[in-house]
Amino acid sequence: MNIQIIVNDTHHDKCFRELVDQPVTALRGMTEQQANALRDAFGINTIGELAELKAVKWARAIRTMAFAEAEPSGNVAKEALIDDAVEMTFPASDPVSIQSSITRIEVPPEKVDASSDHQGAAAIEASNQQAIGSNALGPGGDKTAGAA
Q: Is the pLDDT confidence value at 12 over 80?
């Protein structure tokens, strides 16, 4: 372990056994004001006393166990029930039915070619005939209005 990143420069030459008895200000980033607050609140003066603080041990234990804990089975079951209920009330994969008696469409109905089935298709075709000299409706321009 690289101790230089943990303790202040004045404590680099000390071993771990010596660091335990050093003031908490020996820890890098610990200010005198923070050390005084620890002393006033918890009676902590040294690094060893800070490590033995029950609240710190309990907090570390809770965090460690939180990572290992599985989600409560009740929560998983409730979430699954909600997902199923939503799926049952609005199944996104089912098509909207055309009539109440129709629940499933096996073969799609014949569809009209939209390019020639238009209320103004005859007028558009006549305009195209006049402008470019040929029918322009439908694929390849070979259809006439009304012929699907």
A: yes
